[in-house]
Amino acid sequence: MPLPLIQHPELSPNSQAFPFVEQLLTRNKQLGTNVTKRHGVTIIDCGIQVLGGWEAGILYASVCLGGLARVELHWSHLKDFPWPSVEVLTDHPLRACLASQYAGWPIKNGGKVVLGSGPIRSIVHEGGLFETLGYRDESNTAIICLESDTLPTDEAIEQILEVCNCAPTSLYILAAPTASFVGSVQVSARALETGLSKLRLLGYDLGKIVSGWSTCPLPPITKDNLQALGRTNDAILYGATVYFNLQDDDTTIESIVKQIPSSLSQYNAEQFEELIERHGNFYELDPAIFSPAEVCLNNMNSGNSFHAGAVNINLLRQSFCIKA
Predict the structure, then answer these.
(1) Phi and psi dihedrals of 308, rounded to 5?
(2) The pTM is what?
(3) 3-state helix, strand, coil in the chain (%, to 5)
(4) What are the tens digits of pLDDT across the range 106-133?
């Protein structure tokens, strides 16, 4: 059954994200980004041919979330493991995380297929998710984020323009590889979306979710793409904590919370890089693994909170190659 995401212009992901795009455009020297135009389309390189930085990562992640969430970096202290972390909080979790941030649009970019995410997802309804959300953004401006180690080709730009059906001057493409400052921040900022996706996989009624908050360790930067993929996923699977406010009954929440943590996966406590090397295909892994390490669900109806899972400090130390 479609969720009641009403067409509020003031909650348009593309409109709300644009002020963050403007900062990436006007502060590019400060942020370590580079802006070019091709066929009228604005392309912002956030870490491919430039270094980028953590502040650019915050802005990039904010764009991915449709400008409907707050993204911050802070120090977390997990047992004896003080480490920089990415924090995301939103009062519009379905719009921010699922209607915008969810990376479900495959785009051919040269010899590779890269995933498109960000506000354009609420315009281009690729995949079955939007049958559930029942939402479409009517914005004339379209903003897409590409997780890619190469800038978009002309063919990729043509594909995006054709599907989103917007004027070239209204299209903004942000691109950054996983192995970069921006990539490290923006993937860690997906912990909350990972929790929502797991709840959707479990068949939970997402309409009962009011707000969300997540914290996730910030993976150290590496130039190795596979290692970066491993570290960013390990950060979520073994280091992220998500918190949702819900309006439901205690029995349902107590049952569902126990099914969310990544520790329930058959791959529990295996480094993600090793899983990819063994299986060879990201998409053949058990979907149950894509979950946060720890979850807390607060029932606003009863005032009770339910907790499950735990952060795996030892695996994070191994994944992040911390030399004590």
Answers:
(1) -155, 155
(2) 0.94
(3) 40, 25, 35
(4) 999 998 999 999 999 999 977 677 777 8
